[in-house]
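Sat 14:20. Reprocessing the chain from the morning session after the first attempt stalled halfway. Input below, unchanged.
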Amino acid sequence: MSTDSEPLEVWCAGSDWCPITTTATLIGKKWHPVVIHRLLENGPLGFNALKEEVDGISGKVQSDVLEDLEEHGFINRTVVSEKPFRVEYSLTDRGRSLEPVIIAMRDWGREHLTAPEDQ
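Finished this time. Tokens:
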């Protein structure tokens, strides 16, 4: 598991295209940037509260996304209570550093995307 203060090891390090490809791979999955965005907007959230904020995600997929984001040092998972068992997810410094990227993605989408006309 990577901590958010150490660089991520990547196989393509040294290639000029590597930072773009690696960043896209890490946050370019369907739900990853959405979870990061919701934590940026709301601060720390429990599993169910986060699921409510991420409309359309299944519990299994959310668990997988959270595990992947934690493994790469973007979020922290903190046990809040044992009985009943409750955890809270929050962004690390590495996760918060994605704010300009996530905001740029949101803004670009607002400007260039629209719903199909038949909806």
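The chain has one domain: 18-111.
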